[in-house]
Design a protein that fits this description.
Rossmann fold, seven-stranded mixed beta sheet, six-stranded antiparallel beta sheet
């Protein structure tokens, strides 16, 4: 996937600007607050349906403007030229993909695969289980066609059971929705479990190159109930009285956890802050590597403020890995990151100043 053009309109401090990156490494430099991260944020919004810095209505729309607009053109791996546009007012949105109206944001997300490493990415290691579930499900969304229908089926059944719990509905209705919830939940868990299995060899290959000091990291899926002892249907039945008391479902894949077991260290708590960030980056690249292996091409890789997040040694190791992938990479920084200065890599540099992208320079 190769992004060739990106246009922003009323997005944060950009009134209107255009970005035309090249293959390989694209570096965006500028002072803090100049808008470098906004460029990455715009593509992340198209590809994930959300920003990594908050909701659309919480500051993404330029002050005084009714809505933001993002438009991009890219070349797909099969050589087909594609285009997508999104207008978002915070509560309402409109989008088009290849000239056709989009009914669900998931259509844009399916078309564009973007992996972003940003200052908040450490939450993938030390944050809540929800962050790691979202990480797993994003990968499944791109590689397993049955995931979204299965996830929607489970979510609908969960919503219905929770409503019955709050209303203290009939036992027959609970029985029916618990059967549906258990069937959908077991299928969803099977997909997640297989995805974790597929991720492991890619993680094993990347860790020695990016974070050898950590040693081996084993990915383990905890499905959200004591699956080794019972089925989800039995777990739901046994937890019914407690669930009636609290008014929501306490067992199931919506409470699943991706556990990171460090065999050579006592636990995630033994990691330094820097190692936590580096492990999070390795996990993101693990997901990207799996997608590349299954789909034959790498997603777009975005590294926000790489120089501040990684020391020079780890930057150099990362750049060596990225160069081998052939992926298109966007990097931001107030200056040229030390790793890029050390490596003799072809880099296209853009400067962001006063809410505008200036002409590029190839080196």
């Amino acid at each position: 996937m190769l992004i060739e053009r990106l246009q922003l309109h009323d997005f944060r401090r950009f009134t209107e600007t255009e970005f035309s990156p090249l293959p390989g490494f694209n570096l965006l430099t500028g002072d803090n607050g100049s808008g470098k991260t906004t460029v990455l944020e715009a593509l992340h919004l198209l590809a994930h349906g959300r920003s990594f810095r908050g909701r659309v209505r919480d500051g993404l729309i330029r002050q005084g403007a009714p809505a933001l607009q993002v438009y991009t053109e890219w070349v797909a791996p099969d050589g087909l030229r594609r285009r997508a546009g999104l207008q978002h007012a915070g509560q309402h949105w409109q989008a088009r993909l290849d000239g056709a109206d989009v009914q669900q944001l998931g259509q844009l997300c399916e078309a564009l695969a973007v992996v972003t490493f940003e200052p908040g990415s450490h939450a993938l290691v030390d944050g809540s289980s929800e962050v790691r579930r979202r990480f797993l499900d994003w990968g499944l969304f791109h590689v397993e066609h049955g995931f979204m229908p299965g996830w929607r089926r489970y979510s609908r059944a969960l919503k219905q059971r929770n409503a019955l719990l709050r209303q203290r509905g009939s036992l027959s209705a609970l029985d029916a929705w618990e059967l549906e919830l258990a069937t959908a939940g077991e299928a969803l868990t099977a997909m997640r479990s297989l995805h974790v299995t597929h991720l492991q060899p890619h993680l094993d290959a990347l860790l020695p190159r990016l974070l050898p000091v950590v040693g081996e990291v084993v990915l383990e899926l905890q499905p959200g109930w004591r699956r080794q002892d019972m089925s989800l249907a039995d777990a739901l039945l046994l937890s019914r009285e407690r669930d009636l008391a609290v008014g929501h479902t306490t067992q199931g894949p919506h409470r699943a956890e991706l556990r990171l077991r460090l065999r050579d260290l006592p636990g995630r708590e033994a990691l330094s802050r820097g190692q936590t960030k580096q492990l999070a980056l390795t996990l993101l690249l693990t997901q990207a590597s799996l997608l590349a292996g299954l789909q034959g091409h790498w997603p777009l890789l975005q590294l926000d403020d790489m120089g501040a997040e990684l020391d020079r040694w780890h930057q150099q190791r990362l750049l060596e890995v990225l160069q081998d992938t052939g992926a298109q990479v966007f990097v931001t920084g107030t200056d040229v990151p030390s790793g890029l200065q050390q490596q003799a890599l072809p880099v296209t540099t853009f400067h962001v100043e006063h809410g505008a992208l200036h002409s590029r320079v190839s080196s």
